[in-house]
Design a protein that fits this description.
Blueprint (H helix, E strand, L loop, with lengths): L40 H8 L14 E2 L11 E3 L25 E3 L8 E3 L3 E6 L3 H17 L2 E4 L3 H4 L4 E3 L2 E4 L1 H13 L7 E5 L1 H6 L1 H8 L3 E5 L10 E4 L2 H9 L3 E3 L5 H8 L6 E4 L7 H13 L5 E5 L4 H13 L4 E5 L4 E2 L4 H6 L4 H17 L6 E5 L5 H11 L3 E5 L2 H18 L14 H4 L3 H8 L8 H23 L17 E3 L2 H7 L9 H9 L2
Parallel strand pairs: 5-6, 5-18, 6-9, 9-10, 10-14, 14-15, 15-17, 17-18
Antiparallel strand pairs: 1-16, 2-19, 3-4, 7-8, 11-13, 12-13
Helix pairs in contact: 2-4, 2-14, 2-17, 10-12, 13-17, 14-17
Length: 533
């Protein structure tokens, strides 16, 4: 079975001349003609060089790995039962799926009230990419109205041309303030939260201290993400901004201070600069000091996000989170999505979800045996729909309280925005014409949303209504799956999905996770039942 998808991907704008005769190792055509201008990935790299490393066009797309891992969520099925109910009375008139409670609280420990979510979903971090910036208003409103936690990702302040920075520290950033304000404007009944994240450059600028003054509900230390093993990256289309970012301490390629590079840019030899963030250097002393600084600055809730690094680093993330009482730990496995990451890196780097999450479960078990603090854990990396959410919660139970999804909610924003834009311009939109031509007719969630916001519905962007409607779908789907498993309340440990609600469909999946193979589950209890026949 081939795991990697070789050849030229549309993600980078390349194509092989032949579709069938492609070498399975190199990804090149079986025969390469000297006269070919088909512009496969290697051929196009000969013309555009480093530009071909990244998914294109920047700012208009998100991208995700297309690698097929040996074991993924498809190797597990969800079990149901015909007996009883947990979290609700075992009564057919009461144990119905609409009565499943999805409310969950993150960080509710040691006297803290915790952060309330209406659905067990977080958006782990959308930073300075253009696709995040352009869609933020709708995403923030949609997440806030849905009671979903939203994270402002790295480099937003550093990228803000209107930011005021004095002596290396941020004094004002309209971009960050607006991101927080957009979420807070639509937040309802104390559900959800806006979290701000920092990387190396953000730390130097004092972004999290500034975010706390702006009213951020929590702050997050970032070790990395699942889509790449280097820092944040974006494309810059103007020389002025490239030079500004270099002055603010970022790595900018090609060097915008080099006169030859400036001339090449003016003559359109290339049209975009690349801005790169630095690699973080994790040490226990540095981590402990930063935690203390943020608590002294007023942070009530501290998060940590780590990426798909080797398991030594995963153990370190769990250990540091335990020792320094981190409230929420997000573990982002390979295979998810991004606004900009190197395409081959996204496919070929990092530890995949099932193996990574199994180790999280094992390490959390070890901490529990030692009687140590365990943060509430969020799994992230390629999740998009309700079956994924159920499987992730069950797989990591009882430690995993929520599932992180960034690309799926952003897709909901972009799709609904694009549809509504076509309708506003009176373009044919055959996919939705059968539903109607106004927001109330097209978006299923409009009625419920109007009950929530009243006349303010007209002020809400179409993309936000899309996120809210998408949230309704995954909520109802999750309730149905939970009801079938007879689990009716996420807030109670005994009545939420657990590992015994899953079966492995392959021996390999069972071997990796210790989740029973399909023909092995319930063996002993089945014998007992039969003995009483």
């Amino acid at each position: 079975m081939a795991f990697s998808r070789v050849g030229s991907s549309a993600a980078v704008g390349a194509a092989n001349r032949t579709k069938e005769d492609v070498n399975p190792i190199s990804g090149l055509c079986g025969t390469c003609w000297e006269s070919c201008v088909g512009l496969c990935e290697v051929g196009k790299s000969a013309i555009r060089g480093p530009e071909m490393i990244y998914p294109q066009p920047f700012g208009d797309v998100t991208a995700a790995s297309i690698k097929r891992y040996p074991v993924d969520w498809g190797a597990f099925n969800i079990l149901g039962t015909a007996v009883g109910a947990k979290g609700i009375e075992s009564d057919s008139d009461k144990a119905i799926f609409p009565n499943v409670k999805l409310d969950i609280t993150l960080g509710k420990k040691e006297g803290k009230e915790g952060i309330k979510l209406r659905v067990p979903v977080t958006v782990p971090g959308l930073g300075s990419t253009d696709v995040a910036r352009k869609n933020w208003e709708a995403l923030a409103a949609g997440c806030a109205l849905s009671g979903i936690l939203l994270t402002v990702g790295e480099n937003v302040v550093g990228m803000d041309p209107d930011a005021t920075i004095e002596k290396g520290k941020v004094k004002e950033s309209p971009a960050l303030k607006s991101r927080i304000d957009m979420y807070k404007k639509w937040q309802k009944d104390g559900y959800g939260a806006i979290v701000v994240q920092e990387n190396v450059e953000d730390n130097r600028l004092g972004v999290l201290e500034y975010a706390l003054k702006l009213g951020a509900d929590a702050v997050e230390l970032k070790w990395g993400q699942g889509a790449k093993n280097i820092g944040g990256e974006v494309k810059i289309r103007t020389l002025k901004k490239a030079q500004m970012l270099q002055e603010r301490g970022y790595i900018v390629l090609p060097d915008p201070s080099n006169p030859e590079v400036v001339e090449a840019f003016k003559h359109k030899v290339f049209r975009e600069f690349e801005r790169h963030s630095r690699l973080g250097m994790v040490t226990e002393e540095g981590f402990a000091n930063r935690v203390k600084e943020l608590r002294d600055a007023g942070a009530k809730y501290l998060f940590l996000k780590t990426g798909a690094y080797r398991f030594e680093d995963l153990a370190r993330a769990l250990a540091f989170s335990s020792k320094y009482k981190i409230d929420v730990l997000t573990v982002d496995a390979a295979g998810g999505g991004t606004g900009m990451s190197p395409w081959r890196m996204m496919n070929e780097w990092g530890t995949p979800p099932i193996e990574t999450f199994q180790k999280v479960f094992e390490y959390a078990q070890e901490l529990e045996k030692q009687g140590k603090h365990i943060p509430d854990i969020v799994f992230a990396g390629g999740f998009s729909l309700e079956d994924h959410i159920f499987k992730g919660l069950a797989f990591g139970a009882p430690y995993v309280k929520a599932i992180g999804m960034a690309r799926a909610p952003l897709t909901a924003v972009m799709a609904s925005t694009a549809i509504w834009r076509r309708i506003e311009h009176e373009s044919e939109q055959s996919l939705v014409d059968k539903y109607g031509r106004d927001k109330g007719e097209i978006f299923f969630g409009s009625t419920e949303l109007k009950n929530l916001v009243g006349e303010d519905l007209e002020e809400i962007p179409a993309g936000a209504i899309g996120v809210f409607t998408y949230s309704m779908r995954i909520s109802q789907g999750l309730k149905q799956l939970m009801a079938g498993a007879r689990k009716f309340n996420l807030a109670e440990k005994e009545s939420r999905p657990e590992r015994s609600d899953l079966i492995a469909l392959t021996p390999r999946a069972a071997e990796i996770t210790n989740i029973p193979y399909i023909t092995e589950h319930d063996k002993e209890i089945a014998k007992e039942i039969l003995s009483k026949a």
